[in-house]
């Protein structure tokens, strides 16, 4: 079964399911060997492993390189913490294409303004993208998606 299908099963399961954080090939392999069904590719952890802050200091191409190693060492799906999509709708479209080329099962994007502020900063206001901009990012991601297109609605 494709990794995208595995992720869809996890998301649609009636059972409590867990995706466990990983930030490199070794930690991804440990997650799989421990018996978990999926991996959460944490933006915070990937950035921290690179020695940078979680505010888009690591470029999307650097994150992509880490993901490629994670995917190469595992057979379970990876869901990427895609921050804000690394820019506007064009960046999101390109990100989705590159993630699919590397076998990444899914991406979660935040409705914050690029560049993002870490969610764990106490008392900091989290500026949100306007609705039209964020919807444009989601549409661009879905338009760029070619895996599992038979599951699309409309």
Automatic annotation (TrEMBL):
Transmembrane segments: none annotated. Pfam families: PEP_mutase. The keyword Lyase applies. Gene3D superfamilies: Phosphoenolpyruvate-binding domains (3.20.20.60). CDD domains: ICL_PEPM (cd00377). One of its GO terms (molecular function) is lyase activity. Keywords: Lyase. InterPro entries: ICL/PEPM (IPR039556), Pyrv/PenolPyrv_kinase-like_dom (IPR015813), Pyrv_kinase-like_dom_sf (IPR040442). The keyword Coiled coil does not apply. Belongs to the isocitrate lyase/PEP mutase superfamily. PEP mutase family. This is 2,3-dimethylmalate lyase.
């Amino acid at each position: 079964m494709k990794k995208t299908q595995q992720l869809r099963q996890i998301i649609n399961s009636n059972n409590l399911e867990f995706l466990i954080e990983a930030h490199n090939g070794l930690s991804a392999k440990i997650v799989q060997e421990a018996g978990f069904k999926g991996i959460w590719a944490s933006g915070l952890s990937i950035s921290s492993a690179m020695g940078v802050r979680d505010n888009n200091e690591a470029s999307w191409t650097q994150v992509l390189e880490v993901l490629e190693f994670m995917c190469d060492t595992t057979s379970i799906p990876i869901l990427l913490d895609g921050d804000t999509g690394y820019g506007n709708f064009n960046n999101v479209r390109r990100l989705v294409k590159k993630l699919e080329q590397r076998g990444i099962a899914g991406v979660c994007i935040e409705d914050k303004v690029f560049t993002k502020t870490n969610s764990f900063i106490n008392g900091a206001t989290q500026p949100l993208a306007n609705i039209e901009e964020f919807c444009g990012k989601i549409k661009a991601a879905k338009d760029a998606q070619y895996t599992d297109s038979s599951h699309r609605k409309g």
